[in-house]
Amino acid sequence: MTEAAGATSDESLARRSAEGDQQAFSELVRRHESRVYGIALRMTGREEDARDAAQDAFLTAYRKIGSFRGESAFTTWLHRVTVNASYDLLRKRSRAPDPVAEPQELTGRRTPAATAEATDPAGRVAEELDVREALTLVSADYRAVLVLHDMQDLPLEEVAAILDLPIGTVKSRCHRARVALGEALGERTVGSGASEGTTEP
């Protein structure tokens, strides 16, 4: 073997999973379950729905692991599966999501108020709850861009690959999603200091 167990790549694990190695797939789940759940939580707005969407994402990944050809990073493929699972759950759900509390990485890194509250834990949690609730008011297509780029810190190019969209569309949606989120929060300055997408129509 030329690859140490601790250094096995996602792509190698995916190939082994496609060949029936269940331990390899379990390792992929272990590596990525936190990120998958985080995306699902921000997309759906509720912990229960996020757990269901994350479970559906991994079940889909397990069934379709053979379709991963390595043309992109495994994480790009898995994030696409996760977003699609979240879309499916949102389509099935008839009621509006309840706000949920999980004080970690809830706000976008460009949300001005988040910085102001950084030294006040109680105020920060309240702000994070406001952001989570407001995020559910942004349309799902725009929300996906905001979640992946601003909240998961993925490059615009990777977001475009995940969503199978032209990068110009991603930039435009990102900008408009920030504006929509700012309006929902009553803070129209959200995203005003960012350069990506601000010149898109």
Walk me through the structure.
This protein has 201 residues and is mostly helical. It has two domains: 9-98, Rna Polymerase Sigma Factor, Chain: A, CATH 1.10.1740; 99-201, Arc Repressor Mutant, subunit A (Orthogonal Bundle), CATH 1.10.10.10. Helices cover 64% and strands 0% of the residues. It has nine helices and no strands. Helix 8 packs across helix 9 (167-185). The radius of gyration is 18 Å and the shape is globular. The termini are far apart. Mean pLDDT is 79; it is low at 1-5, 97-118 and 188-201.
The general outline is: globular
Question: What letter string, H or E per element, gives the SSE order?
Answer: HHHHHHHHH
Characterize the largest beta sheet: strand count, sense, and whether it forms a barrel. Answer: none
Overall domain count:
2
The helix-and-strand class reads: mainly alpha
- The share of residues in extended strands comes to under 5%
CATH class of the largest domain: Mainly Alpha
Strand runs, count: 0
CATH architectural type of the largest domain: Orthogonal Bundle
The rounded Rg comes to 18 Å
Q: What's the rounded overall pLDDT mean?
A: 79
**What is the CATH topology descriptor of the largest domain?**
Arc Repressor Mutant, subunit A
